[in-house]
């Protein structure tokens, strides 16, 4: 762990030296591209990138782009139709045809060529997939997973800066091509003082991390060419015979993907999402990011041009990597067990991609001293930020990060975490909870295992296992506020097809139908936004719209308190939005201005403290 922490801190220091300064040729990425689900999300990402560049939080002289998926979740407005109870609001219109991150990769390549012309064949590109609305981590829904705040740095690092820091060594040891990664995972690794990871081989090159077989069932698994003469080292370059996408444990054994841990000696492989292995156990090598050289990227781009926009969901890992290596077969093209939507064109498209890429080498960079962490759910978020997790130690995460806050209580299971917030000395935040971008006044008590995001709270008890996140919304030119609230165990993605079935939905562990009675709301189609065959907490119009941020928080906490105490709370007096609609009407500029006000107040407080100390 010591070598991993040391290597991580070195990368963070190196990136810190590059922030706000022009980078030399070959020193950093030529292009950093972030994908977005649609034009609305594209605009939000561009606004945040612009703010970061203005404040010199990113290296300069780099092309930063946002590429929306042309066939992603399209959001427009039908000003003729009117939503429930709000004749003043235009009604959002939704469609949901998706290309998946494979289609998003292909359309991004087309955007690159369009922007850079022939120059793109000499560029080193980092492509970060960050499309989607983060239903499993809703505090990232409005501004994006890649802009999730971390309890680290001054000013606060977000996932974008961490990605750039952890990959800071890659560009100088890479041939022109595209490195593909996701916005909600973290790869930490150590390769020894004199070594570096090189991306200089033809075809595709992927990182591989030792993992338990259970973890392998939810990741991609590499079947490596055997090499009995190879000594296990922190860094190994291997060839992949075949790539398995989310295989069963039986298939891992069947295709010889399983290794014995004994050869690692006493090396500690526990800690990350990718490993928790007793020394006698078996393990596999799982995937994270991958690189494709320019020739391979051009092959995919030419294919995309000939096919046009895709009408099915293609996965960059499952559909690209499974076609690679000498042992690849077309068998996977018929397996739809991990497909969210089985379109009629999917099998045909998969087979075309298989034949396009078959024979292309898949090089594997085996990182035996590495960790892979996923922070894409509420549970993962709380685990890594508040418990004594390996990530907290390896990355140097703080309990109080760039905040004005009293010391936070600790217990055997962990601590509270306060990020970019102002917390009054009379406020109590229980262990296991995270507060970000918020102002908490005196006589506020936050229960354990809560997430409080972008909120202003005064004289309130927030019950344990609560999620609270406020958004600025602009409707017909008027700035207003709405706060989503629910229980940490609630499933926002769980949906039913008919009004009769909404009793299967739960809000804070209570039958949703019972909640509607408490709130004086009727179960009609108008209660839900979007697709009327997909009724869920995500699309339920139950969140009050108010003229101030604090009023919005108070109203939403009132509806939660009513459910917990089984006492009436009349929501029919309010204009109401669903979470889905909040994201349509969100006012990114106002949310960023709110964060900037907190930033300036924290900075002023810190400057005053420094003066008093001197």
In short:
This protein is an alpha/beta fold and 614 residues long. 28% of the residues lie in helices and 24% in strands.
Strand content: 15-25%
The share of residues in helices is 25-40%
Shape: globular
* Mean pLDDT over the full residue set: 90
Give a short account of the largest sheet: 10 strands, mixed
Tell me what you see in this structure.
- Keywords: Nucleotide-binding, Nucleotidyltransferase, Transferase.
- It comes from Mus caroli (Ryukyu mouse).
- Residues 117-547 form the GDP-fucose pyrophosphorylase domain.
- It contains 15 helices and 34 strands.
- With 614 residues, it is an alpha/beta fold.
- The protein folds into two domains: 4-73 and 96-226 and 234-260 and 282-336 and 344-374, no CATH class; 399-600, no CATH class.
- The strands form nine sheets. Strands 1, 2, 5, 6, 8, 9, 10, 11, 12 and 13 form a ten-stranded mixed beta sheet that branches. An eight-stranded mixed beta sheet has the order 15-18-21-24-27-28-33-34.
- Helix 1 (2-18) crosses helix 4 (159-166) and helix 3 (100-116) crosses helix 7 (294-307).
Features:
GDP_fucose_pyrophosphorylase, globular, Trimer_LpxA-like_sf, Fucose-1-phosphate guanylyltransferase isoform X1, nucleotide binding, alpha/beta, transferase, 614 residues, eight-stranded mixed β-sheet
List the helices and strands and how they pair.
Elements: H1 2-18, E1 31-36, H2 39-54, E2 63-68, E3 75-78, E4 91-94, H3 100-116, E5 124-129, H4 159-166, E6 177-182, E7 185-189, E8 204-211, H5 213-216, E9 220-224, E10 235-245, H6 249-254, E11 259-260, E12 282-293, H7 294-307, H8 316-320, H9 346-357, E13 362-367, E14 370-374, H10 378-386, H11 390-395, E15 400-401, E16 410-411, E17 414-415, E18 417-419, E19 422-423, E20 428-429, E21 434-436, E22 439-440, E23 445-446, E24 451-453, E25 456-457, E26 461-462, E27 466-475, E28 478-487, E29 495-496, E30 506-507, E31 510-511, H12 512-518, E32 535-536, E33 543-546, H13 549-565, E34 576-577, H14 579-585, H15 588-613
Parallel strand pairs: 1-2, 1-5, 5-6, 8-13, 15-18, 18-21, 19-22, 20-23, 21-24, 22-25, 23-26, 24-27
Antiparallel strand pairs: 3-4, 6-12, 7-14, 8-12, 9-10, 10-13, 11-12, 16-17, 27-28, 28-33, 29-32, 30-31, 33-34
Helix pairs in contact: 1-4, 3-7
């Amino acid at each position: 762990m010591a070598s991993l922490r040391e290597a991580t801190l070195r990368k963070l220091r190196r990136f810190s030296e590059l922030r706000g300064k022009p980078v030399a040729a070959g020193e950093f990425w030529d292009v950093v591209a972030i994908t977005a689900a649609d034009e609305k999300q594209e605009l939000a990402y561009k606004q945040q990138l612009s703010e970061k560049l203005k404040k010199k939080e990113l290296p300069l002289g780099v092309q930063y782009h946002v590429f929306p998926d042309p066939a992603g979740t399209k959001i427009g407005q039908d000003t003729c139709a009117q939503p429930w109870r709000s004749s003043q609001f235009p009604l959002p219109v939704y469609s949901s045809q998706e290309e998946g991150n494979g289609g998003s990769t292909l359309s991004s390549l087309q955007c690159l060529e369009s922007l850079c012309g022939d120059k793109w064949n000499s560029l080193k590109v980092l492509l970060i997939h960050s499309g989607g609305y983060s239903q499993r981590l809703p505090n990232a829904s409005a501004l994006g997973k890649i802009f999730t705040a971390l309890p680290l740095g001054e000013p606060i690092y977000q996932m974008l800066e961490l990605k750039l820091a952890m990959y800071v060594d890659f560009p100088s040891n890479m041939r022109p091509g595209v490195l593909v990664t996701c916005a909600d995972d973290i790869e930490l690794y150590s390769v020894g003082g004199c070594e570096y990871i090189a991306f200089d081989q033809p075809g595709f090159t992927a990182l591989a991390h030792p993992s338990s077989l259970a973890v392998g069932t939810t990741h991609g698994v590499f079947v490596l060419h055997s090499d009995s003469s190879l000594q296990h080292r922190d860094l190994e370059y291997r060839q992949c015979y075949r790539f398995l996408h989310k295989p069963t444990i039986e298939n891992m054994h069947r295709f010889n993907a399983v290794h014995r841990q004994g050869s690692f000696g006493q090396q500690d492989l526990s800690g990350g999402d990718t490993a928790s292995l007793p020394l006698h156990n078996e393990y596999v090598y799982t995937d994270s990011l991958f690189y494709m050289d320019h020739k391979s990227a051009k092959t995919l781009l030419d294919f995309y041009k000939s096919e046009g926009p895709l009408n099915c969901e293609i996965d960059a890992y499952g559909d690209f990597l499974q076609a690679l290596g000498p042992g690849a077969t077309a068998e996977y093209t018929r397996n739809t067990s991990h497909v969210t939507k089985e379109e009629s064109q999917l099998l045909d498209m998969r087979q075309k991609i298989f034949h396009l890429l078959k024979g292309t080498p898949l090089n594997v960079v085996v990182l035996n001293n590495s960790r892979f962490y996923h922070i894409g759910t509420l549970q993962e978020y709380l685990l890594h930020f508040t418990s004594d997790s390996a990530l907290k130690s390896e990355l140097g995460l703080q309990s109080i990060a760039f905040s004005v806050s009293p010391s936070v209580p600790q217990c055997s299971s962990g601590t509270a975490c306060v990020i970019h917030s102002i917390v009054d000395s009379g406020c109590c935040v229980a262990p296991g909870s995270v507060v970000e971008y918020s102002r908490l006044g005196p006589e506020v008590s936050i229960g354990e295992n809560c997430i409080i995001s972008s909120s202003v709270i005064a004289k309130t008890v927030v019950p344990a296992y609560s999620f609270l996140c406020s958004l600025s919304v602009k409707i017909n030119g008027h700035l207003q506020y709405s706060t989503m609230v629910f229980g940490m165990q609630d499933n926002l993605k769980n949906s039913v097809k008919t009004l009769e079935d909404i009793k299967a939905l739960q809000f804070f562990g209570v039958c949703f139908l019972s909640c509607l009675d408490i709130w004086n709301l009727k179960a009609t189609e108008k209660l839900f936004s979007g697709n009327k065959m997909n009724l869920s907490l995500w699309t339920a119009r139950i969140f009050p719209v108010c003229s101030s941020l604090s009023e919005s928080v108070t109203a939403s906490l009132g509806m939660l308190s009513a459910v917990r105490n089984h006492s009436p709370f009349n929501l029919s007096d309010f204009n109401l939005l669903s979470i889905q609609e909040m994201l349509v009407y969100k006012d990114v500029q106002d949310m960023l201005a709110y964060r900037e006000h907190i930033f300036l107040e924290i900075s002023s407080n810190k400057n005053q403290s420094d003066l008093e100390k001197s």
